[in-house]
Design brief:
Elements lengths: L10 E7 L3 H11 L5 E5 L12 E2 L1 H10 L11 E3 L1 E6 L2 E6 L9 E3 L2 H14 L3 E14 L2 E9 L5 E11 L17 E12 L9 E5 L5 E7 L2 E8 L9 H11 L5 H13 L3 E7 L10 E3 L14 H16 L8 H14 L4
Parallel strand pairs: 1-2, 1-10, 2-8, 5-12, 10-16
Antiparallel strand pairs: 3-7, 4-7, 5-6, 8-9, 9-10, 11-14, 11-15, 12-13, 13-14
Helix pairs in contact: 1-3, 1-6, 2-6, 6-7
Length: 349
């Protein structure tokens, strides 16, 4: 699956660490400028995760501006037109603004969406993709000049050099400390299940269920599957087991719409329960020549907002727009100004 190329002491225009949503979009967008891009990703297999499965209309607009709405094609993505908020068995439907030409949102399996992006960058002649792990970032004269990585197959260690190194290795980033001063706070964990072959009160809508229980959000990810995410407070993740399964049924089943209860009970019994830490990470970037950080590696918000992918795509578009004004990335002063302007103009929430 790799476009391996020949790696030597060649200096790339851009080295991107991480081929998730932000990294893949960054590579695809920069390659349109004719830049030589090197991407390093630890695992190119299709991933099965419970994050990044609802792209809000703002994120769809960003894909349109990049010219990459094709990434949503052929993955059984489901249009989402708004939210139904359920509180004490009352429904409050909030639709997305429906002005002429404005897109809806989309729910999909994150792995399928991401593989569409990766297929694109693997086929681009301006992009070289390596599968392996970046172990450290390389510096010279207080400037970032590349990274050291270990190839997944050969276990060979290699130094990679670029005029600009972009860190997009996601929420569990091991490299963010050089380019930010993170104050990551663990707010708890969220748990995900797939509800199969059920109906919700409003088709093609997200459903936010509130009450005397932890909040739940449900949204379509394929034509016959809905993702349910449940927010859990605490410093330790829920421990799946017989008692926990019974707790889920006792606490949440009757809070769901009647049409979803059977599917929820079946999903709990099946036991394919996934958890992920819920971190709050305000963006606190540090300017360093030759480097930039974006996406979840820089900034995270609560997953129930569904805003993570939109924020990442906005980062990519804003940074690329600034980099377009730098014809030669070896001009360190102009390159540094473009990165600085990106940090100044993005929302640092």
């Amino acid at each position: 699956m790799q476009n391996t190329g020949q790696i030597s002491d060649f200096i790339y225009d851009v080295l991107i660490v991480g081929a998730g949503i932000a990294g893949s979009a960054m590579a695809a967008n920069l390659a349109k400028l004719g830049k030589k891009i090197l991407v390093v990703e630890r695992d190119l297999r299709e991933r099965d995760v419970i994050i990044g499965e609802l792209l809000q209309p703002g994120g769809v607009i960003k894909l349109q501006e990049m010219g990459f709405t094709k990434f949503i094609d052929n993955i059984d993505a489901q249009p989402v037109y708004g939210y139904d908020i359920i509180y004490e068995e009352n429904n409050y439907v909030i639709s997305y603004p429906n002005k002429t030409g404005e897109p809806c949102g989309y729910g999909f399996r994150n792995g399928a969406f991401l593989q569409n992006m990766r297929k694109h960058i693997l086929a681009d002649e301006n992009i070289t993709v390596l599968e392996g792990s970046v172990t450290e970032l390389l510096e010279k004269d207080n400037a970032l000049i590349g990274a050291r990585y270990v190839d997944k197959s050969s276990k060979e260690e290699k130094d990679l050099f670029a005029d600009l190194t972009v860190i997009t290795d996601g929420p569990l980033s091991s490299l963010r400390e050089m380019l930010s001063t993170p104050e990551k706070k663990l707010n708890g964990y969220f748990m995900g299940l797939l509800l199969k072959n059920c109906e919700m009160p409003y088709s093609n809508h997200g459903h936010l269920i509130m009450g005397d229980h932890p909040p739940m959000v449900i949204y379509p990810v394929t034509s016959n599957e809905w993702r349910i995410l449940i927010d859990f407070k605490g410093e330790r993740p829920p421990r799946p087991g017989k008692e926990f399964k019974q707790y889920l049924k006792d606490t949440f089943e009757n809070a769901l719409p009647v049409s979803a209860r059977k599917a929820f009970a079946e999903a709990v019994d099946e036991g394919k329960i996934k958890t992920f830490p819920n971190h709050r990470l305000p963006a606190k970037p540090v300017l360093k020549q030759g480097g930039v950080i974006l996406g979840d590696a820089l900034n995270m918000r609560h997953p129930l907002t569904g805003g993570g992918m939109t924020a990442a795509l906005n980062d990519v578009l804003l940074l690329c727009d600034n980099l377009k004004k730098v014809p030669d990335f070896k001009n360190k002063r102009k390159l540094g100004k473009a990165v600085e302007k990106f940090y100044e103009n993005r929302h640092l929430g």
